[in-house]
Amino acid sequence: MTTSSTAKLIAVPREIARQIAPEFASLAKRSNGRVTVATLERDIVDGGLRVWAIADGPETLAWLLTSTYRAPTGVQVFRIEAIVGRGRKRWLHLMQELVGHARAMGCSLVECNARPGWRDEIPGLKHSANFLEATL
Fold first, then answer.
1. Which of 2, 36, 109, 132 has the greatest number of beta carbons closer than 10 A?
2. Given a cut of 90, is residue 12 above it in pLDDT?
3. Can you tell me the mean pLDDT for 105-126?
């Protein structure tokens, strides 16, 4: 895997994160009505979603949305809600840093609902289920 030694994972402060919501327009478009840019912005402002940037110098390569929740068993889960961007071979290695942030937050499980092409791309994650849906 090709990596960029200068790409960095950056936690975006909530005060400016709401300005990032339009970057997720493609996610909203393919969500089958589950989210809109407005609902993403609301969840970012309310603190339910955290925004991360992956930048290489002045160039933003990707945006990520994450959340945490406590499962009924008490397990703290770090969830990668969305990743939008380009040039993933330049920054995919930073996913291990993101997992480190999850550990620091007290999470013992990471989950990511992803399209099939991501199945083997994020190191350490394994395929455990399929998400099926039908528009009614």
1. 36
2. yes
3. 80
